Amino acid sequence: MTVLAEIAPVSTRLREGTRAEHSQAESEGFMERLLSGSLGVAAYADLAAQQLAVYTALEQASERMRDDARGRDLVFDELTRVPAIERDLAHLYGAGWRDVVRVLPATERYVARLHAVGGDVACYAAHAYTRYLGDLSGGQVVQRMMQRHYGLATAGLEFYDFPEIPEAKPFKDLYRERLDGLDLDDTEVDLAVFEAQEAFRLNRAMFVELGVAHP
């Protein structure tokens, strides 16, 4: 065991342990083109459809965590994203959106992973940390770029709005504090780091398939 493993809190180990995977996911061609304004609203709408599938699975895991003595402290109602994504899709596709959105194979694999491991507190923590803290950080940049390049306003971008979290930094600090207080043992921390790396890999694979669909 390294000195870092002995002294670093879980949130630090997750951040440091996923640095490479995080960078690779962020630099995937689809996201670079989307954020530069090179694609179109249809590409963003397709991304939102994939997010709905992922967050539905993640938030089903959150409901399971409410019954876990440790995991319940990491479940925050104000982070719930599914209703906002559904409103975005209704705006982007129209009232019949459920009949036209599609879930990509890579997204299906991501969802399957969440269903498989979401009941384990270390794995749940890894996936929730990866998604929600990303939404409160880089997700805000995505929202601004969608507004700038594609003319979207609040409607269609509610996914990135957290009305019950007026200030992101204090909330993120609280989230990391709860994460560090989960009382995970060394084996669980190693599992959490691995699972967070896997979350970024699954997310990147989803971006790759979106890139093929929107060249």
Give the class-level CATH name: Mainly Alpha
Number of strands: 0
- Estimate the mean pLDDT confidence: 90
Order of helices and strands: HHHHHHHHHHH
Protein structure class: mainly alpha
What is the helix content? Answer: 55-70%
**Biggest pleated-sheet summary:** none
Shape: globular
| CATH fold group | Heme Oxygenase, Chain A
Q: What is the correct CATH architecture?
A: Up-down Bundle
How far the N terminus sits from the C terminus, by CA atoms, comes to: 45 Å
Full CATH superfamily name: Heme oxygenase-like
Residue fraction in strands = under 5%
Total tally of structural domains: 1
List low-pLDDT spans: 1-5
Q: List the total number of helices.
A: 11
Computed over alpha carbons, the radius of gyration is 17 Å
Keywords: Heme, Iron, Metal-binding
Protein name: Biliverdin-producing heme oxygenase
InterPro entries: Haem_Oase, Haem_Oase-like, Haem_Oase-like_multi-hlx
Pfam families: Heme_oxygenase (PF01126)
